[in-house]
Amino acid sequence: MSPDGRTTSGLANDFVNGSVSFWYRAAGWPESRPALPGSLEADVCIVGAGLTGLWAAYYLKREQPDLRIVMLEKEFAGFGASGRNGGWLSAELAGSRDAYASTHGHDGVVALMRAMRGAVDEVIGVTKSEGIDADIVKDGVLHVARNQAQMGRLRESLEYERSWGATEDDFVVLTGDESNARIRVERAMGALFTPHCARVQPAKLVQGLARVVEGMGVAIYEQTEVTDIKAGRAITARGDVRAPVVLRCLEGFTATMPGQRRAWLPMNSSMVVTEPLPDSVLQQVGWKGAELLGDYAHGYMYAQRTADNRIALGGRGIPYRYGSALDHRGATQQWTIDALGALVRDMFPATRDVQIEHAWCGVLGVPRDWTATVDFDRASGLGTAGGYVGSGLTTTNLAGHTLADLVLKRDTALTRLPWVGRRVRKWEPEPLRWLGVQAMYALYRTADRRESTRGLAGTSGLARIANKITGR
């Protein structure tokens, strides 16, 4: 213990590990909703009350108010990634654009990118019109480069974005001084800035949206685990919900369904959040706006300055648990907490005496080709959306809206986007997928160290090997 009563471990005296996420600690726990009272019938049954399912319910009810919609949730609305993420309402699209282009061409991908940028403003517009206060501020995002190899990837990123239709209004390269004028990051050599991103408090967003759809007449039953999904019904121990349309919106929890263990791999991501920054520290960090912050490391990070002046920063912990196992209510391992805390202090030396107050983790859905999917089969009435690979806060809105149009049998610009109806091969069986993921991230971590310590001018060959392993 230090003379001022602070712990010397870097963790606050009231430090919390898990308990879902800091976002709920800050926003307050939601009131419990009742469990499914028994078997019933509906027009649409949505399995999973995260953002994908909630957005699908919102647009279905908005377009056809008489629909009987039932949502089933094992824990509570927003328990998964929807309430644990980094709060990036960004236009970043998961996966390989070449994979999307293979079926819909270059113009199809450009249309998808435009739709993603539009979805950022769509979410902001809905929160305003529906009275959801989620601390949203649209100040854009900076991806900083902190060594020569990262600067090379920054320049490659700009060329890549321009090849897919981006203009100077979409991406701007900042010098080190220009980047530091916004956020003072140690050893920042430059940054790529895009305005298509807003800061969000995730728990406030998902809980606000849940209240809105309930007000529209959607029934949300919590503490109700779905054990199987079949055409026309969702099966639970409390009874079955029979509906001609059943939408699986489980994202990283998809592996809990029978036959889905190898569909979308539940990848783990972890976060820490500091105590509120003292004015003297905040002045040194210089983070006056609400810009989001990322980087060009292979073991990437993502961060925001919260509305109450904390730094919330995330990255990979244990990337994957054997057999597609899940975490326990967000608890993460100590070495991850230490690593993320060290990264906060490495990027922002002024925070050396600022304590970490909360750490947590969550799962995100990763398809074998790392590319998202929206799918609805009219014959069976079964639909799904997910595979956002960590870029889901905006993507859930676009995917949920698209699912709604598909269910309503509408031919729209959304239903023609290239992620609709995609088929992806399954992940390898164990132990191959566990070994592959562990090898991939070990290579990425080693590549980052070499690029940083050896001053490599280009991307490490180890990272290129990791990319081949992943199929990215």
**Basic shape:** globular
Superfamily (CATH H level) name of the domain at 31-137 and 200-263 and 369-427: FAD/NAD(P)-binding domain
Residue ranges: pLDDT <50 for 5 or more in a row? 1-8
The name of the CATH topology of the domain at 31-137 and 200-263 and 369-427 is: FAD/NAD(P)-binding domain
CATH class of the domain at 31-137 and 200-263 and 369-427: Alpha Beta
Q: What strand order characterises the main sheet?
A: 1-19-15-18-17-16-6-8-7
Radius of gyration: 22 Å
Strand segment count: 21
Mean pLDDT: 91
Helix content: 25-40%
Organism: Mycolicibacterium nivoides
Keywords: Oxidoreductase
Domain FAD dependent oxidoreductase: 43-406
Protein name: NAD(P)/FAD-dependent oxidoreductase
Question: Keyphrases for this structure?
Answer:
single chain; 6-stranded mixed β-sheet; 11 helices; globular; FAD/NAD(P)-binding domain; 472 residues; 21 strands; disordered N terminus; alpha/beta
